[in-house]
Amino acid sequence: MTDNSHSDPDGAEARAYRRAMSAFATGVCVVTVDSETGPVGMTVNSVTSVSLEPRLLLWCLDDRAERAAAFMEGRPFSVHVLGAGEADWADRFSRRDYRLSEDEVGRSRSGSPILKGGLARFDCVLHEQIAMGDHQILVGRVAHFEAEEGAGLTFFRGQYGRIQEHVE
């Protein structure tokens, strides 16, 4: 093990840290929200269940993300857990093509833009925002959720994969 406790956010050490963190396989989600210019989405892999009562989840937002302001203005947002066949959404919303047209989205009960598809969707209102390092931790109170059967999209060492539901 290497102790890299003194980080350079843009240097070799930061790249090595990202590489080490990529050994943790995660699910892939897209979070959607309305911005001043219309609906936007962002690919994230930091979604975590926080509490069952009340229903809370969190995800982490890079302060430097171009669309960060839209998510920090307290508008309702939706977290979409992507299915194995939805890597195109993950790619799209991890780059600059993150704007959605109104005909690409539906609306949740709370008014947030929602994508068509996905394995699960959690419609949230902002419960708390916590500054942590160079990110914001956004805690959402889940107002509504839906789930479907199917294989999930995963991310490991910079590559997409899939995990199949266990069937007995």
Alpha-carbon Rg, integer: 16 Å
Strand content: 35-45%
**Class from secondary-structure proportions:** mainly beta
Intertermini distance:
39 Å
Number of strands: 12
- Form type: globular
Major sheet size, sense and barrel closure: 7 strands, antiparallel
Figure out the total of helices. Answer: 3
Brief account:
With 168 residues, this protein is mostly beta strands. The chain has helices spanning 12-21, 68-72, 87-94; strands at 26-27, 29-35, 38-44, 48-51, 56-62, 77-81, 106-107, 113-114, 120-132, 135-147, 152-156, 159-163.
Would you mind describing this structure in some detail?
It contains three helices and twelve strands; from the N terminus they run αβββββαβαββββββ. It is mostly beta strands and 168 residues long. Strands 3-2-6-9-10-5-4 form a seven-stranded antiparallel sheet. A three-stranded antiparallel sheet has the order 1-11-12, with no helix packed on it. A hairpin with a 5-residue loop joins β7 (106-107) and β8. The N and C termini lie far apart (39 Å). The mean pLDDT is 90.
Keyword list:
mainly beta, 168 residues
List the helices and strands and how they pair.
Elements: H1 12-21, E1 26-27, E2 29-35, E3 38-44, E4 48-51, E5 56-62, H2 68-72, E6 77-81, H3 87-94, E7 106-107, E8 113-114, E9 120-132, E10 135-147, E11 152-156, E12 159-163
Antiparallel strand pairs: 1-11, 2-3, 2-6, 4-5, 5-10, 6-9, 7-8, 9-10, 11-12
